[in-house]
Amino acid sequence: MRVLVLGGAGEMGRIAATEAASYEFVERVTVADIKYGAALAIAQTIGPRAEAAYCDVTDFSALRHLMAAHDVVLNTVGPFYRFGLPILQAAIAAGRNYADICDDWEPTLQMLDMNAAARSNGVTAIIGIGASPGVTNLLAMTAASSLDRVDEILTGWSIDIDEETYPESEGQSGSCDVPNAANVHWLQQLTGKIRQQQGGKLQDVPPLQHRNIQYPGLGAMSVWTVGHPEAVTLPRMFPGLVSCANVMIGEDKDFRELRSLAKLVNTGILSLERAARYLEEDSSRPRPISNAAIPFRPQLFAWAKGIHDGRKIIAGAHLRTLPSGSMGGATSIPLALTLPFFAAGFNGRSGVFTPEEILEPAAFLEELSHRCTDPLGNRASLVVHAREYLKL
User: Fold this and answer.
1) Do the Cβ atoms of 360 and 137 come closer than 8 Å?
2) Separation in Å, CA 66 to CA 5, 95, 107
3) Same domain (yes/no): 33, 70
4) Helix/strand number for the chain, H first, E second
5) Alpha-carbon Rg of the chain, whole angstroms?
6) 210 and 111: one domain?
7) Residue 379 included in any domain
8) Same domain, 306 and 183
9) How far apart are CA 81 and CA 94, in angstroms?
10) What is the residue range of 230's domain?
């Protein structure tokens, strides 16, 4: 297999390329980026199976030509609301299989509309196979498997996860004069309106809505909504779903500050870019040290509510730990983990799919567990799956 990693000089691309080169069936990994020097350095670090290529993803003709020399395209170039759809279109035109870490719900819907074109060209494309979306989608399927009827699904992540390596959406430029693309993306999904399943249908609603849920085995948990693909793709698997949202967990005071910042953007006082720069400046300030015990919060999780054996029930599924201990590994390694599944052929299925539509959760999470160890270096069961019946 010949693998092309777009955005290979970025944090996400570097990890994905390194993981891809570890598979015996992978003959060559091309680290492609507009920053050729950085791509070359990463390829040399990976070893003899890797090579570098200059790639400007806005040059459709050159991009398609580069893709045609490979079997599978792994795309880490963001923001996906700008680059997701055209890069997928190039892969379909080149007739090459494709996977990405798209974390914007708007292009996710546009890319799903490319299903017929992908099928006609024999292309299998998986969009949003990172940490969130990606692992969270499969955790949602795991949690929902406990229920006879699923009424509500939440997928979520903690804002306290390794903030330095969180950027799932990486642009082609690494200039320090522009704000981090991940923060711009995050604020975009915290402002204006977001789409999620509500009242049995997809609706555009304000983000940063707060609620408390009961999480099996952990007790009360405070969550805040954010725009993300899971909220618009999981209802495709559960036609009777009443509500579905993506949420964040962390300190409530942090979310109140985010809500104030979002209000400044919504009223036009701050631009998204300036607000993102403020987030970066704020995160660099020292935080006061508290002696208070910090309750355990799952880093990536899913929660479902419904009926089992005629009784109301809630179920949760979360990871015990993340690959390499960071969101960088949790995002990029699942992307590269699609390669063995591409090699197996998906039983000839082609089209554009979300992770929950084409990946078997238990098999994929089992593969992911081989990249995860506890703090003592021991491999254990990766997923914690618990459920509780609700009192009448």
Assistant:
1) no
2) 11, 12, 23
3) yes
4) 15, 16
5) 20
6) no
7) no
8) yes
9) 21
10) 135-324
